[in-house]
């Protein structure tokens, strides 16, 4: 079935933001973008949770969006995080992203203030009606403290500019309900759930481990799309330890930043209150990376 956001199906990578001495390292950032383009990644998602958006100033947030769009230069899609728990703030960031040439906007559900289902609907309705680029709803109740119920998302799918959902509830039932009732393009918000979600009709993933191994995530996605579930399971289990460590060792993006440092592609520096892995956690991660063949 054709879906509204099918141009964004496949692998989107939730980019880390390289930091050196407390500032964004744009030279290193450019290298990361080129790495993803060379790998065949479908879409870049800067300034999401993995990109440390909660600790970047609004000025730097906008600068990063403009930088990634400029570096991508039309060679790869760009879907930056522009969400907020303030509708006015999300609208301002999204209009900025649209103005500088982003292809879509990733909109995390309003967090902390815990809106009602009506509040969720009205928030996303404003963004859909007042912005011209496709909107990807990002439902992650583990971080926002409130689930957007399937009925709300199904209602939002009636709006022309709501085209995608990043599904990070961990509920196969919720994802199935959305897929069955809408023509939204559904992307997994959890690397380790890419295969099961695609098996019920999702269309790809917004990936954290894709910062390290985009080619392998692309192989998993291709195997599912080709109906080769035996090969897809092989890739799922090969990737599983990496996915486990990215989610289990500490809060995202701490483990992936540490992994990028260990493989020599990032300083590992983060902005407070995010702090590095403890030494024993680094040892676990190093063993996983070595077993995978990355070290």
Automatic annotation (TrEMBL):
Catalytic activity: L-aspartate 4-semialdehyde + pyruvate = (2S,4S)-4-hydroxy-2,3,4,5-tetrahydrodipicolinate + H2O + H(+)
Pfam families: DHDPS (PF00701)
Site keyed Part of a proton relay during catalysis: positions: 49, 112
Binding locations of pyruvate: 50, 206
Catalytic site positions: 138, 166
Keywords (A to Z) from UniProt: Amino-acid biosynthesis, Cytoplasm, Diaminopimelate biosynthesis, Lyase, Lysine biosynthesis, Schiff base
Transmembrane region(s): none
Keyword Iron-sulfur attributed: no
Cellular localization per UniProt: Cytoplasm
GO cellular component, as recorded: cytosol
Single GO MF annotation: 4-hydroxy-tetrahydrodipicolinate synthase activity
SMART domains linked: DHDPS (SM01130)
UniProt record, GO biological process: diaminopimelate biosynthetic process; lysine biosynthetic process via diaminopimelate
Pathway, per record: Amino-acid biosynthesis; L-lysine biosynthesis via DAP pathway; (S)-tetrahydrodipicolinate from L-aspartate: step 3/4
EC number, as in UniProt: 4.3.3.7
Keyword flag Amino-acid biosynthesis: yes
HAMAP family recorded: DapA
Role according to the record: Catalyzes the condensation of (S)-aspartate-beta-semialdehyde [(S)-ASA] and pyruvate to 4-hydroxy-tetrahydrodipicolinate (HTPA).
Subunit structure: Homotetramer; dimer of dimers.
Protein's name in the database: 4-hydroxy-tetrahydrodipicolinate synthase
